[in-house]
User: Fold these one by one.
Assistant:
Number 1:
Amino acid sequence: MKDRDNSFVRLYSRTITSLAVIFIMLGTVAISPIFQKVYAQSNDITINGAGATFPFPLIDSWRNEYQKIEPQVNINYQSIGSGGGIKQFTEKTIDFGASDAPLSESERERAPNAMHIPETIGSVVVSYNLSSVPEKGLHLTGPIIADIFLGKITKWNDPAITSLNTNLVLPDSEIIVTHRSDGSGTTFVWTDFLSKVSPEWQQQIGIGKSVQWPTGVGALGNEGVANVIGGTPNTIGYVELSYAISTKMPYAFLQNQEGNFIEPSFDSIQAAITTISASLPKGNASWTGVSSTNAPGKDSYPIASFSYLLLYKDLADNPSMSKEKAQELVNFVAWAVTDGQSYSKNLGYVPLPDSVVKLNQETLQMMTYNGLPIPPTISNGNEQTGSDGVFGIIAVVAASSVTGFVIYRRMKSKFHPTTKVDYQSRDDRKKRLSLFFLKENRLGDRIFKVVAIGAAGYTAFLMALVAYSTFAGSSDIFAHEGFFGFVFGTDWNPVEGRESYGALPYIIGTLASAGIAMAIGVPISLGIAIFVSEISTNKLGASLSFVIELLAAVPSIIYGLWALFVFRFWVRDLIELPLSNAFGETIPLFAKTPFGLDIFTAGIVLAIMIIPTVSSISREVMRVVPNSQREAAYSLGATRWEAVWTAVFPYARSGLLGASILGLGRAVGETMLVTMIIGNATGLGAIPTTLFSPSQTLSSLIANQFNEANTELHVSALVALGAVLFMITIMINIAARMVISYTSKMKVHKMKNNHQPSKMGTGDLPPTEIKNNSDGGSVNVIGNSTTGWKGHSNVQAIIRKESSKRILINKGVTLWTIACVVAAIVPLGSILLEVGKNGTSVISIEFLTQTPGAIGSRNGGIGPAVQGTLLVVGLGSLIAAPVGILAGIYLSEFAGKSRFADVVRFLNDALTGLPSIVIGIVAFVTIVLWIGTFSVLAGAFALSIIMIPIVVRVTEETLKIVPNTIREAGYSLGIPKWKITLFVVVASAKNGILTGIVLGISRITGETAPLIMTILGTSLFFTSLVGPVDALPLRIWRLASQPYESAHDFGWGAALILILMVLTMNISLRFLAQRKGGLGAANA
Amino acid sequence: MPSEEQLINLPSNSLNKGPAEEMKRHYKVSIKNLNAWFGAKQALKGINLDVKENTCTALIGPSGCGKTTLIRCLNRMHEMTIGASATGNVLVDDVDIYEKKADPVLVKRRIGMVFQKPNPFPTMSVYDNVAAGLKLNGIKDKALIEEIVKESLEGAALWSEVKDELDKPGVSLSGGQQQRLCIARALAMQPEVLLMDEPTSALDPIATSKIEELVHELKKDLTIIIVTHNMQQAARIADYTAFMYLGELIEYGPTKQIFENPEKELTERYISGKFG
Ligand SMILES: Nc1ncnc2c1ncn2[C@@H]1O[C@H](COP(=O)(O)OP(=O)(O)O)[C@@H](O)[C@H]1O
Ligand SMILES: [Mg+2]
């Protein structure tokens, strides 16, 4: 016999090894020298800043230019919004903040001794889409604009407008108003202006980064507003000047205080600023109330404002700030407000007038470090320690080599040298064995059980942590509005001093959009499942299901971009307009002029997003239905459809229900995608009155406003939306449990009847199978039951019907399933086409491995994002995979009917429906605030919370399919349970578990929202485990919101890379699954 | 109170036993007043049964009468089903496996079991299936394992058929071969008693007769208790036969007697196929 002593251990260690190799590869790739390039040298100083989106292009080009002057100083500025900038500045997680609005009094209290340094000037312009006025130059006044945005002037040919524009022909059409849905400095400046020119606005609405809009469609970011204006005739909206300039949007001339109509330009804006600069406060004083809108002067454009850098007067207030870094920071700011100004005009920014530059220089002279002044120095001898970077690299190298070594030892220890002893006689052997078998080792079982319980406990703890943080964070608003007041309130007014919050419209919006998604997505998914599992069971079916599963690999942010740029126009032109033209007058559901940004579009896109998940699980459930069921129906002469209806469906019912509920969970919790296309109405306006109304969901409102929320009550209200969502998912889960336990109780009942002793022969079930089936406690995604065939009488009833009609129905159903497949494939094709078309041109080695070049240029790449994604996802799955698998093992193998297990299952299920943004918030308040900076660790922690329930669920379900006889075979050999579990049961279910892991990794690879709050993003390579990193979804999002063509192309390129990464993972998994038979082979 | 050593006990014809002890040992397995439950439902009612060494005993009876439950009580497998319990004593070599200190895991190492449907470990090769019990119980001596694997496959009359494909997955064998593989897997543990629960019910006639021949061979070395549905089979292979009905042991005796001259009318009616 040849040596095969290790063939058995090999099976297992091979899996471990390949996983380990993957992770080690991730680790090494992530820190490999190509990535390090010029930038992340260990003695570099990195200055992290974050805040307003508006100055991002300018600050980013400062990063690039300053690097040329001071190569060892890295500036990393991330646009997370002014509110986010202020929040992070207050929490001291960053070195400087940036905001479009000065600190309010309450913000100043929380960040004492903050200095304001105006670093550039912004301006807001009014843009429009009028076929009769394709160019700039429409004349408008402040009061007219206010009336339009108040919903008082509704027609373009309103006399108030036409009288100012006698030379233009204005259409007799409704004005479609669009505004920013996300909290933003731009909105702050805009509402500041409207409040100055319209007392009514001032009274009703007020000033704020988010306000309660009386009318209009909300769009995400300047990009979103521009997209709405560009794509929808007769729209009006507001965007930043630099954005309008670089995207060549038409803009209006506005009347200033002295009655002149002024074109927004560098000169007219600088003129406005100059008129007020004499009255500006000192840098260390309060800037609350400083406003430069509606400035006097005959040449002043009326909507101009500063954007500010925020620094602590004593830089040592931030504990992570070294003296060297403080000095470099001051030097950089000094450069930015002087020499740096020369880069403004090219990018569409207005340079600071001399008076303001001077003011800033005085401010910088006041800066101190531990009380000692640190004025800007021209040149400087840098001797930084830079231990951060070295530490990071050493840590990662050490971690991966320790892992490698441990695994090596593990494998090595299996290769025991043979002690060659001759056991000639059989009795000798027997004796040796029996002596050996005396040794019982219960310790292994105990340890394993404790570890498994520990893992399950950890998942339960995480879920409880999320629940607790969410509810604790909501206590303020519940105290303020009352719980029911909040849940049933309809007002949403975040303007300081007028605050009032109610969640009802968003609860309705969430349920309505998810309802539409289910109504469309579930039938299509079932059709697909029927097609691939019942009709086309050959190669075609297999490849189709593969292609459809690819849809699951598309990150939701890419769905969002695709929906915003492509799909919403299809929906508008092909479905909504025909419907509203035909039935708009008669059926109220279709009233309202549609433009593709509404609850209906959101529902459809959500449906497309859930189809892959629901259809693949349904397919698996239907495949498990034994063929004997179908054959029984066919033998009675049933058509294919009748066989499905009478034999397959009843059998698979609880599994199909489980699949739908998983889909519902995703639809309810989806964030970014919905935010981009639902129209983002607030207040009463968010309650959809027709299918084509803009609306808002709980999670989209959180995404829109969280970063800019600047009062504690506002933050608390947003967190409370998360709590409401949590309750909704829990209610859905409870309902699902009730339905499923009801159906499976009926099953158990039936089975008991089948198992009468009087029935001889095949009714003789092995005892343990019953145990598996009576487990009604969990949402049984994969219906692994053995009911008797129930379709009997149904079929007989059906086949008595006329046969030509039956055949017709059968044909019809077949056609319908084909239609479903097409309906799923077309979006996939379109997405891939769009991403491929726009993305391929930018892809190169440089693109993959370099840091971003100058803003607006096509230099550099997205190296840090690629590296960061590998790091964060790798680390996240390194936490989630073992914990999830162990917890799944516990639930399936050890828990039995324990309460604790039910609690774990329940929390797990509830969590899968929670929007990831809420998980991001939890990771922020725990890890980020605890460490004090954004970090890989925080991102990995957040992602692991998202991935764990998926792995737990899939592991448990797969292990449950492993037949009990296999376990019993192991027990009957006297093998300790933990070894049976690992080497027999888990080994059999390996493919299923691997699928779960890949599913989980695909899911977290595309997550955006939680990363914004945990890793921040950076344009630099990784240097430290406790500093910001970048990630692809984050980068895509940021690139897409820049006004440059090149940035958009980079965004598509990054999307392509992201999809390719996830696809590669999916495909290699399938390859693996096909090569190694595992359980599938056992059943075959 | 028996020591652990006694519990494990050494191979049957063992070494250091006094004459007095030798005298007591009439039976290899001795079942005393065994009751078993599934939850509140009683599946076995006061079973008493003694099995001699190196014999084959068949359990027959209608479906649901408790045959499976009974043999699952003999290696303490029964209690692993959730909600199941048992009382009474089962003496193996005069040591009670239901004794408080008895370890149910160790008990299973001495008493092999073959199941109704062949259940080789799906991820393992033929070789590993047989070696699994040894390896997973911590035996690392390669030479020893190889010896035992070969011997067990020979013992299960499978060696000649699979000796060139030991690396093939166990599940790729035919049904009959799989069942013999499972027997080999049990034999590798050098059991003293082999429990078989309708081992041929899923097999074709040729595979069935192979297993029946095997039982003949095996009982030279061990004590076999086999559940069967097939009365001819019982008549062919068993030295003793026990007839069960509704959880009770109705009649027990030499096979010939049970089949030709049963004492109880119920037995007679069952044997002659009048019910069941
Ligand atoms: N897991 C179980 N749970 C509840 N009752 C069971 C279970 N397994 C068997 N039974 C019941 O115990 C009795 C004996 O079953 P079993 O030993 O399998 O019978 P046999 O093997 O003789 O057909 C039957 O009435 C059966 O319904
Ligand atoms: Mg049985």
Number 2:
Amino acid sequence: MGLTLRSVGRGAAADEKSGPRADLSVALAGNPNVGKSTVFNALTGLRQHTGNWSGKTVVTARGYYDYNGRTVAVTDIPGAYSMRAGSAEEEAARDYIAFGGADLTVVVCDAGALERNLNLALQILELTPNVILAVNLMDEAKKRGISVDTGGLSRALGVPVIPMAARRGRGVEELRAAIDGFEPRPFAYTVRYGESLEHAAAGLELTLENVLDGRLGARYAALRLLENDPKTLESVNSHLGFDLAAHPRVSPALDRARAELADAGVRDVPGLLISGLYSAAASVRARCVTGGSGYGEGQLKLDRFLTRRSTGIPVMLLLLALIFFITVKGANAPSDWLYALFERIGALLSRGLSALGLPGPVHDALIFGVWRVLSYVVSVMLPPMAIFFPMFTLLEDLGYLPRVAFNLDSGFRKAGACGKQCLTMAMGFGCNAAGVVGCRIIDSKRERLIAVLTNSLVPCNGRFPILIALITMFLVTGSGLGSSLLASLALTAFILLGVGMTLLISRILSRTVLKGQASSPTLELPPFRRPKIGEVVVRSLFDRTLFVLGRAAAVAAPAGLLIWLAANLRVGDTTALAAVTGALDPVGRFLGLDGVILTAFILGLPANETVIPIIIMAYAASGSFQGYENLDSLRALLTQNGWTAVTAVCTAVFTVLHWPCTTTLLTVKKETGSLKWTALAALIPTLAGAILCALIARIF
Amino acid sequence: MASNLAGLGVSSGAIVGDITAFGELRRRLMDLGFTPGAAVRCLFAAPSGDPRAYMIRDSVIALRGSDASLVTLAG
Ligand SMILES: Nc1nc2c(ncn2[C@@H]2O[C@H](COP(=O)(O)OP(=O)(O)OP(=O)(O)O)[C@@H](O)[C@H]2O)c(=O)[nH]1
Ligand SMILES: [Mg+2]
């Protein structure tokens, strides 16, 4: 539910070979956004992230549970509309089900949209009879007046069918039992594609049966050969280890079948296949589903309100500003409280260390280096994150994010990009590395690259609180309601700067290095779903807290030590840090910053959280700074070192627009497989930030 | 009577005739359920008028006008 790297499944994704040995392996397949990850979590007790939009899961995850003395391995795969895979991920999903050696495939379906879900289920049934249908979202369907006769569905399809409402845990035990007791039935539903195609396929099937010898279903293979989709055939061939179409016995049979089809006037085999699947799905649905069709009145009203010309964009901006307002206002008190707490513990630690008789420099390095950075990161970073993310997650669970993508699509289209980029930007708020991985939901390669290269223009986790701190210290001081309001507007403005730059740079990229036409995205708008408020709040609070604390311990604390050393150990008559900041000072000043700020951004490469503490340490080492009680003393320190509102604005702009952190860069490298694109991902935002900062510094 | 999906007004419904798109888009549209004979309804439009959201096979799918024009309507 949170938006960290884990939200794309990394945390749960285990290598197939690692992890316990399983007695049975089960794949969870299905259309996007039908609750596969929810079912996965219910089965395994893991916490794979879920969200009310298509494409939440882009990385396969694996988990285990024990039932009836057996260990069952479950794989949560990204959603797909079809087994004729389009994107690389759909292809991976298909290959896993088709050839990945899962003993059993559970096809998770949306009870409210069975026709389209059955289309996929019927395709999977062509591959393997080892299928269980989990008809999920039964609660939602019921509310819409739809009732599904799951017994009838089971008889019609010849596979077990389990009704579920996975979010409430309903049907989970039944599914476990059905998985445990699964036996393939002698008869499973077979889709018939019309006389001409069936006749042609039948001849081919006979030959294939001999050649394949059980390694792949003959009917499946015959249909794929006639369909002639290069990508699917490639997978089939690599599974078999030879080129099926070129096999000496298959090749003439295939030629005969094709000639037969041509004689019968059948030209568009893929079209015939998909139409056949859908009419089969429609007739099964007609037999097993009653009531409800069309879109709920309430849903439609809300949708029109959120997308209408007069209200769509204003509501979006208001919501954003409102969330920021609550964040800014709400984070204030806990921040101060945490800060004071850390100071008090720090004083105790300091006394303890002195009592141990540690030499002065060691004491100082631990207290002023490690502890101060730790306390800054936790007290300044944690509260805003812990407030922002639950709210954001509520909107995500409600299903609002795809509406934002819908509203902004025309802007992205004009920039030669894809509206789904909004979804990856939204993930970028949590973590740009997660945002970059999330770009896999964009089908067009060119547009995916654009989204990858511009993702860091949305300030992540580690940068977003820097903005709040800068704004509340220099741009909008005071803690009244009015100031909080203004501060949240200023924050909205900086976020909009990031969004505006994303559009501008996307446009420039589409005209230069990534030339091309805008593609044809198809975006599914899921029904609004009521978020489980309690669960969302608890979970995302928990997730955020662990995430921030983890980062603080793993990155900020050691960084604090190193930087304290660099700022305080004298080499000759200067310190290493002073030498560097001195050398960078002219460049920094040119950008409206100074040497210290620029150095802090450079040293903040592994984790942006450390930028402000580094600035503080560098200034403090060269001056006589004593107290850190609260933001006021920080402001005093910064002012002493020449900061003005312009410095704060330039620093804020540079916070939004500069090189991404190392994790993000490594992820870009992994996703694009190219050093060139990785370099561009760093260069583009830096250049934009430098130009903008230099301009601001010149003008004011 | 609109001849293709892009011409279908908000709140009106029609029956899909044919998909004149090629390649990847054709495949994707058909996978989503835009097949000949399917009932489709235009639900609402984005603030700029494009894209629009269509109800197809009990799901809501947003299409850009340039793509919707590649779905012809029957009748
Ligand atoms: N009302 C209701 N909502 C559910 C149920 N199961 C899942 N949801 C919600 O449906 C949304 C999608 O669930 P996910 O588990 O993320 O779906 P998914 O199939 O993994 O989606 P992708 O990874 O995007 O393909 C989430 O908002 C869930 O909370 C259910 O049984 N009833
Ligand atoms: Mg999922």
